[in-house]
Amino acid sequence: MAKVKSSRLYIIGAGFAGKTLAGEIRAKGIFGDLVAFLDDDPEKIGSRIEAVPVLGPVKDVARLLRMNSADEAIIAMPSAQREYLAEIYGALKSAGFGTIRILPSLSQIIEGDAHLIQTRDINLEDLLGRNPVTVNLRESLRYLRGKRVLVTGAGGSIGSELCRQLLSGGAQRLYLFGHGENSIYQIDRELRLLQDEGVGEKAMLVPVIGDLKDAPFMEYILGKLKADVIFHTAAYKHVPMMEENPVAAIENNVFGTENLLRAARKNGVKRFVFVTTDKAVAPVSVYGVSKYLCEQLVLREAAAALLAGEASHYMAVRFGNVLGSRGSIVPLFQMQIEKGGPVTVTDPEMRRWFMTIPEACSLVLKAGGVGENGNLYMLDMGEPVLIKELAEQMIRFYGFEPEQDIKIEYIGLRKGEKLNETLWGTDERPEETGFSRIKKLCRGTAGQSFNLDALMKELKPVCVFDRENPGVFRDSGALRKILLEFVPGLNIEEHGHGY
To answer: Which helix (H) or strand (E) holds 192?
Structure first.
């Protein structure tokens, strides 16, 4: 969000986005003096836009500038390639700009509509990884126009970004569902501020504090809200933390999802999109098992809806790591670098897929519209990257040299971790869908090889107190034995506590 008062402002990019921001800066008159545009287009260099000069090329001009801590650069090139952004960032940093801000990618800028409120401090995620696919949100979200849309985990990394993009979908109401009061308050205030500044359309925002584990409440609240579409992102996600609290992981993620699914079908929800993870494939952690079971619950509900002749679509969308999420290593590396190191890496050969949160959310929203009942979809994550190389990039981003200034320490696999993840199982086969970076996972004819209903019945008294079977309540050992008995091929160890 735009900050108040900078002495001198430079807009990098003299295209539609830059011109729009310049008009807003002048109209409000409180953000500082717009000195110049910087651009690499020879046809623009030397011209003026409403008396503001266009200088360039950017890197050449940046070498001549000597800025101070009050001077600010705003990069307004939402379609720029990451490699180019990295070069521009380096030039601006060397010039001494106190603040470097950026507009979001094209997936968040709707038909030339850019606002100063959308700018934010540039961070490493803007410069890392592949170039994100451009998604026309207004077209992708057409299926949500006039609908009531509920996002669970709306205060989380994925949920909050879904909500920001959903502002452009023309939904009648947007329900912000979460268990954490502070996170829901923050995203509610942010969305209202974005709306006040002209971002998106005027959907009615409704914050809802609730707990997925409370089955009667979920049935009650969905009956009241009359949601048409649900995006289910809420989950306990921190792998080592869930290894220490396995019962909580199953109780919240699995039974919470089952409660939500049952309430959704009972109350006529037409589209249900479950956000899942590559850790659900051949899981070795309780978190991974919980997400795998949630996938199975969604597919079970989809089959039941089809059998009942309901015109509903229940689906799951699977992808790998996202840069900058609360459970991501990026914030951890950042904290380690800021305190002088060391940066801790599991193994020099560990690889992970990475995608930015905005791109992942754009594709989830797209999949929610084109996806069909009973299908499992996968986002094309590109090529996995070495975590060691990611750590080195981050260290350099903050102006240090790996090993010379900041040490990298290898600590070995933690509980529930794999050296490498995979996006589909041995019984799954990815197929093209006709939509860029969204694939359909076709399952083998054998299908699910365990009794899901029986498993849920066995797990229930471990998570929810049962007077007839009190001895297993919160017993993590009993939980793991049940999972190992019912789900073939699990590789979870018997460790952790009874929480």
So the answer is: helix 181-196
How far is CA 340 from each of CA 283, 399, 401, 402, 403, rounded to the nearest angstrom? 35, 12, 12, 11, 11
* DSSP annotation string for 302-368: HHHHHHTT---EEEEEEE-EEET-TTSHHHHHHHHHHTT-PEEES-TT-EE-EEEHHHHHHHHHHHH
pLDDT at 402: 95
How is the chain split into domains, by residue range?
Answer: 8-122, 155-443
Annotated catalytic residue, options 19, 237, 279, 388: 279
- Rounded to whole angstroms, how far apart are CA atoms 7 and 135? 36
| Tokens 């914030």 sit on residue | 331
Cα–Cα distance measured from residue 279 to residue 418, given in angstroms and rounded to the nearest whole number: 9
**Residue 470: its pLDDT value, please?**
94
The domain defined by 8-122 folds into Rossmann fold (3.40.50)
**Helix 215-225 / helix 256-266 crossing angle, nearest 10 deg:** 40
The pTM of the full predicted model, rounded to 2 decimals, is 0.90
Q: What is the DSSP string of 116-140?
A: GGG-EE--GGGTSSSPPPP--HHHH
Q: Which residues of 134-151 are buried (b: 16+ CB within 10 A; e: fewer)?
A: ebebbebbebbeebbbbb
pLDDT digits (tens, 9 = 90+) for 360-416: 999 999 999 999 999 999 999 888 889 999 999 889 888 899 999 999 999 998 888
Please tell me the CATH code under which domain 155-443 is placed.
Answer: 3.40.50.720
pLDDT band at 499 (very low <50, low <70, confident <90, very high): low
- Whether residue 266 contacts residue 308, with contact meaning beta carbons closer than 8 Å, is answered with no
Overall average pLDDT of the 16-38 stretch: 88
* Annotation says 224 is catalytic: no
Q: Write down the residue that tokens 């754009």 correspond to.
A: 362
pLDDT given at position 496: 46
Answer with the residue of higher pLDDT: 165 or 326.
Answer: 165
What tokens does 9 get?
A: 């402002």
Domain 8-122 identical in fold to domain 155-443: yes
Least trusted range by pLDDT, from 15-29, 123-137, 322-336: 123-137
Q: What is the length of the chain?
A: 499
